[in-house]
C-alpha cells in the first residue's frame, strides 16, 4: 500500500500518489510515529513527542496490512490516497482521443487541487488556482481562458466544470469525447423498430411465402409499419433500404431463390464455424439414413431402391455399423385396400424402421463377423487394429472383420421418425447411451455423417452395376436389367468394402495435432491410437438383450392365442396356458394386457414377457406351415392387399398365408418387368468382351445393318436363278430343269423336294457339329395326322 507523503495537497482522492518518505507522521498499532529512515523495504519508526511506544523497524508490507495504518498530515488527520488511473479505458479509442483525455486530466487535477500532477515537492499553486484563495468557479473561468488562449480550444467554464465532475465519477473514461467512440450501427439512422419489422418480414417470406423480389418486400414493409407502428414512424426510401439489406447480410437477388434454398440459408448456424471434434472413441457418434442410389432385387421379386442407415464415430471417422433396407415405392390403392392396411400401419413406401435404429446400436457393440466370400484382407488379424490386445479380452475378435467395436456414449440424431420414436429412446436408455437431437433443418449439426454418406456413394455405390444416381442428370448408360444383386448380396459387398475400402483408407481429418506434416491416418489406425488411452471393454449381448431392443406392443391372450397384426400366434408347448385369458394386472394405458416384443423382418414368431416371473414365451404364427419360408411384414401387407382386391377380408389370416406362399413362389422366379437399371458412364460392360453383350436398342439382330444401300435402277429383270452347286439341291446325276415343274405346285413336288433333301444329308460336309446334325435329323412335323380307319 502506498500513501501520500506529508505536506502534499490532497482533495477527495485527487492528490498525487506517492510513498512513505522520511519525516512523515504515521499511525500504527494505536500509536503515532515519525518515519526516521528507510532502508530497502524496512521502515524505521520513532515515537512521536510524548509517546510511550518504543522505536521499531517494520517491513513496509506489515505497515500496509495493518487496519489502523495511515499517513497523517500536519493537523494529525489521515491523508487519503489517490487511486491509480484506469489507463486500460483508453484502449480501443483513437490515439488523438486518448491524448486529449490525458491532457484534460492534467487540467482538471490542477483546477481541483491547485497543482499539476507530478510537480516537485513543495511547489506552490499557480496564480488563480490556489484553492485557499480562489473559488471553483473562478478556477473554472481561469482554466477556460487559458485553454482558449494557449491551445485554441473553444471551451467555456461550464465545459471545464463538466469535465471535472465527470472525472470524479468515471476517472479517465469521463474525459473521453464519447462522440468519437460511437460506432456506426447496422441500421444507421433507420428506426430500430423498422429494422426489426424488416427482418421479421424477410424471415416469414423465407419460410412461408413464395419467392418474390426486394420491391415487394419493401412494399409489405411500408404497409406493416403503417399498421403496427403508426404513421409517425418513417420508412426510408428504397436506396436506403437496399443499403440496409446489404449491411444486414441479405442479398436482394437471393430473395427470388426457391423456397428450399431460402430455408436452408435461413437455418445456417451462426459463425464462427467449427469442426465437430471428440477426444476418445465413442465419445460422440452421429447416426442418419440416406438413399444408397442402388437398385436391388426385393424380396417380392421386384426391383427396389435401398436405404442405408449408418453410425459414424467422430473421433476415428469409422463406420461402426451399417444397415441396408429396401424401399418399395408406394402404389395407388383402392379405398378398400387402404382401409384393410390401416390396421397394420403400412406406409406408402418401406424403408428403415425404428427397430433398425435399435439393432444398429447392438451392431456397434459386437464384432462384425467375417462372412463367406470375404477377402482375407478384410480380417481383423490382417488390419491395423490392435488385434492381439483385443483378442486377449474378447474371444469374438478371432473371426471378426476389420471394423472397430465402439460403445457410443453420446449419439447425435435428426428429427426423423425412425430416431424420434419411443423404441429408439428405450434402446438407448437400456444401453446407457445419451441422445442429443440436432436442430431442425440444420445438417451441419451432424455434418460428419452427411459427408460420409457422400463418400460412400462416390467410392462404393457408383461402382455397383445397378447404380442409378441421385437424380436423372447423374444416370448413365443402360445395362441388362436382369443383372440385379439381392439385398443380402449387396449387404455382403458393403460390409466387405467397409472393412477393406473405408477403414483402411487414409482420412484427411485424421492427422496428428503434434506432427501435422505426417501423412493422415486411417480410421483403424486412429482407433488403435485411441484405444490405448480409452481402453476396450467387451459387452456381451444375449438373447434377452436382443429382445429389449425390439419394438413393444401390449396384447391380450385369448383362447385361440395372441391376435397381433391380423395374425394369430400360439405356443404349441402349452407355455401360454398360465397367461391365457388372464389379466396382467398392469393398469393405465396397458389395460391389463401383456408385453409383446416383435421384429417386423421376422414376423413368423413373437415373444411375450411374463413380468411376474421375468421369462419370455415364444409364440409362432399358426399358419406358418403354409408359407414354409421366411417372410416380412411388407410381404404380408402385399399379400393382404392382393387378397382384399380379390374380395376377401383382411382378417382371414389362413387365406392370406396361402396368397403369401404364392407370392414368394413368384418372387423366386424374378421380375416379369424389371424396368430399366442405369449405371454411370464407364461402368457398363465393355462391348465385345462380355459374351452376353448385345447392341443397345430393341435387341433384334439386323444382318443388313452395315450393308450399302441398294440401287434399284441398276438392277435388271430377274429371269433365271443360277445355281453353282446343283448337287446340294438334287440327287447326284440328275439335272434340275428350269421352270415350275419342280415347284410345290407340281404333282408330288413337295414330297419330291423333301425326300431329295433328306436323301442328300449324307453328302453334306462333316464339319457340322453334333448339335446341328442332331437338329437336321429331326423329322419334319409337316405331315397331317393320319385318321385311324380301323
What's the topology here?
Layout: E1 25-28, E2 31-39, E3 42-47, E4 56-59, H1 60-65, E5 70-72, H2 95-113, H3 136-151, H4 157-170, H5 192-207, H6 214-228, H7 238-247, H8 259-266, E6 285-297, E7 303-313, E8 319-327, H9 335-341, H10 354-364, H11 387-393, E9 410-413, H12 417-420, H13 422-431, E10 434-437, H14 447-459, H15 487-502, H16 523-534, H17 543-548, E11 552-555, E12 557-558, E13 561-564, E14 567-570, E15 594-597, E16 605-610, E17 615-621, H18 624-627, H19 633-645, H20 653-668, H21 749-759, H22 770-776
Parallel strand pairs: 6-9, 9-10
Antiparallel strand pairs: 1-2, 1-5, 2-3, 3-4, 6-7, 7-8, 11-15, 12-13, 13-14, 14-17, 15-16, 16-17
Describe this structure in words.
- Residues 731-761 have a biased composition (Low complexity).
- Residues 731-790 are annotated as: Disordered.
- Helix 3 (136-151) crosses helix 4 (157-170), helix 5 (192-207) crosses helix 6 (214-228) and helix 19 (633-645) crosses helix 20.
- Residues 1-18, 337-348, 674-701, 718-750 and 752-790 have low confidence and may be disordered.
- A seven-stranded antiparallel sheet has the order 11-15-16-17-14-13-12. Strands 4-3-2-1-5 form a five-stranded antiparallel sheet.
- It is an alpha+beta fold and 790 residues long.
- The protein has helices spanning 60-65, 95-113, 136-151, 157-170, 192-207, 214-228, 238-247, 259-266, 335-341, 354-364, 387-393, 417-420, 422-431, 447-459, 487-502, 523-534, 543-548, 624-627, 633-645, 653-668, 749-759, 770-776, and strands at 25-28, 31-39, 42-47, 56-59, 70-72, 285-297, 303-313, 319-327, 410-413, 434-437, 552-555, 557-558, 561-564, 567-570, 594-597, 605-610, 615-621.
- Strand 2 (31-39) and strand 3 form a beta hairpin.
- It contains 22 helices and 17 strands.
Amino acid at each position: 500500500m502506498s500513501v501520500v507523503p506529508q505536506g502534499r495537497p490532497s482533495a477527495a482522492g485527487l492528490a498525487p500518489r506517492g510513498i512513505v518518505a522520511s519525516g512523515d507522521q504515521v499511525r500504527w498499532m494505536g500509536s503515532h510515529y515519525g518515519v526516521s529512515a528507510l532502508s530497502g523495504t524496512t521502515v524505521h519508526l520513532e515515537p512521536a513527542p510524548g509517546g510511550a511506544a518504543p522505536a521499531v523497524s517494520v517491513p513496509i508490507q506489515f505497515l500496509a496490512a495493518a487496519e489502523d495504518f495511515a499517513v497523517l498530515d500536519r493537523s494529525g488527520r489521515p491523508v487519503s490516497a489517490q487511486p491509480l488511473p484506469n489507463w486500460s479505458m483508453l484502449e480501443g479509442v483513437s490515439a488523438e482521443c486518448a491524448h486529449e483525455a490525458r491532457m484534460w486530466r492534467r487540467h482538471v487535477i490542477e483546477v481541483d487541487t491547485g497543482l499539476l500532477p507530478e510537480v516537485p515537492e513543495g511547489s506552490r499553486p499557480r496564480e488563480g488556482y490556489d484553492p485557499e484563495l480562489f473559488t471553483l468557479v473562478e478556477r473554472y473561468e481561469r482554466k477556460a481562458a487559458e485553454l482558449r488562449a494557449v491551445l485554441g480550444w473553444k471551451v467555456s467554464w461550464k465545459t471545464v466544470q463538466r469535465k471535472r465532475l465527470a472525472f470524479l465519477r468515471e476517472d479517465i473514461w469521463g474525459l473521453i469525447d464519447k462522440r468519437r467512440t460511437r460506432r456506426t450501427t447496422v441500421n444507421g439512422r433507420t428506426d430500430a423498430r423498422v429494422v426489426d419489422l424488416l427482418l421479421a418480414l424477410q424471415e416469414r417470406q423465407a419460410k412461408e411465402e413464395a419467392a418474390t423480389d426486394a420491391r415487394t418486400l419493401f412494399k409489405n414493409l411500408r404497409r406493416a409499419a403503417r399498421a403496427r407502428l403508426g404513421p409517425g414512424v418513417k420508412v426510408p426510401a428504397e436506396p436506403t433500404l437496399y443499403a440496409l439489406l446489404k449491411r444486414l447480410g441479405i442479398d436482394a437477388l437471393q430473395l427470388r431463390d426457391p423456397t428450399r434454398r431460402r430455408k436452408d440459408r435461413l437455418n445456417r448456424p451462426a459463425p464462427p464455424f467449427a469442426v465437430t471434434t471428440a477426444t476418445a472413441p465413442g465419445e460422440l457418434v452421429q447416426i442418419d439414413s440416406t438413399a444408397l442410389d442402388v437398385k436391388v432385387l426385393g424380396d417380392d421379386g421386384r426391383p427396389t431402391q435401398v436405404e442405408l442407415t449408418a453410425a459414424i464415430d467422430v473421433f476415428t471417422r469409422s463406420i461402426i455399423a451399417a444397415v441396408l433396407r429396401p424401399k418399395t415405392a408406394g402404389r395407388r390403392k383402392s379405398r378398400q385396400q387402404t382401409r384393410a392396411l390401416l390396421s397394420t400401419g403400412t406406409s406408402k413406401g418401406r424403408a428403415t424402421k425404428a427397430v433398425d435404429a435399435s439393432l444398429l446400436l447392438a451392431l456397434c457393440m459386437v464384432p462384425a463377423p467375417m462372412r463367406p466370400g470375404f477377402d482375407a484382407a478384410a480380417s481383423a488379424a490382417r488390419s491395423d487394429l490392435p488385434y492381439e490386445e483385443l483378442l486377449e479380452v474378447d474371444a469374438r475378435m478371432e473371426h471378426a472383420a476389420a471394423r472397430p467395436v465402439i460403445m457410443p456414449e453420446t449419439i447425435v440424431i435428426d428429427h426423423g421418425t425412425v430416431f424420434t420414436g419411443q423404441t429408439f429412446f428405450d434402446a438407448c436408455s437400456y444401453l446407457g447411451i445419451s441422445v442429443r437431437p440436432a436442430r431442425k433443418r440444420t445438417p451441419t449439426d451432424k455434418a460428419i455423417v452427411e459427408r460420409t454418406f457422400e463418400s460412400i456413394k462416390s467410392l462404393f455405390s457408383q461402382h455397383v452395376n445397378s447404380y442409378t444416381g441421385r437424380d436423372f442428370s447423374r444416370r448413365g448408360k443402360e445395362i441388362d436389367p436382369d443383372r440385379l444383386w439381392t439385398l443380402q448380396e449387396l449387404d455382403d459387398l458393403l460390409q466387405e468394402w467397409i472393412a477393406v475400402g473405408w477403414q483402411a483408407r487414409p482420412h484427411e481429418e485424421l492427422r496428428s495435432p503434434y506432427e501435422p506434416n505426417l501423412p493422415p491416418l486411417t480410421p483403424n489406425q486412429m482407433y488403435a491410437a485411441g484405444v490405448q488411452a480409452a481402453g476396450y471393454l467387451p459387452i456381451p449381448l444375449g438373447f434377452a438383450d436382443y429382445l429389449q431392443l425390439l419394438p413393444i406392443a401390449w396384447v391380450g391372450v385369448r383362447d385361440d392365442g395372441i391376435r397381433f397384426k391380423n395374425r394369430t400366434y400360439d405356443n404349441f408347448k402349452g407355455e401360454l396356458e398360465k397367461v391365457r385369458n388372464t389379466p396382467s394386472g398392469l393398469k393405465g394405458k396397458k389395460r391389463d394386457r401383456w408385453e409383446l416384443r416383435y421384429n417386423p423382418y421376422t414376423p413368423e414368431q413373437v415373444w411375450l414377457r411374463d413380468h411376474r416371473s421375468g421369462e419370455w414365451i415364444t409364440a409362432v404364427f399358426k399358419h406358418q406351415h403354409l408359407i414354409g419360408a421366411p417372410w416380412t411384414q411388407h410381404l404380408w401387407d402385399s399379400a393382404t392387399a392382393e387378397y382384399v382386391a380379390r374380395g376377401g377380408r383382411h382378417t382371414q389370416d389362413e387365406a392370406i398365408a396361402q396368397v403369401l406362399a404364392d407370392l414368394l413362389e413368384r418372387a423366386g422366379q424374378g421380375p416379369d418387368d424389371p424396368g430399366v437399371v442405369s449405371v454411370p458412364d464407364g461402368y457398363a460392360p465393355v462391348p465385345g468382351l462380355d459374351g452376353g453383350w448385345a447392341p443397345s436398342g430393341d435387341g433384334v439382330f439386323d444382318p443388313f445393318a452395315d450393308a450399302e444401300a441398294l440401287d434399284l435402277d441398276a438392277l435388271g429383270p430377274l429371269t433365271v436363278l443360277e445355281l453353282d452347286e446343283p448337287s446340294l439341291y438334287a440327287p447326284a446325276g440328275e439335272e434340275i430343269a428350269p421352270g415350275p415343274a419342280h415347284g410345290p405346285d407340281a404333282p408330288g413336288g413337295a414330297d419330291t423336294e423333301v425326300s431329295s433333301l433328306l436323301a442328300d444329308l449324307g453328302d453334306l460336309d462333316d464339319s457340322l457339329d453334333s448339335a446341328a446334325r442332331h437338329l437336321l435329323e429331326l423329322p419334319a412335323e409337316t405331315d397331317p395326322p393320319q385318321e385311324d380307319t380301323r
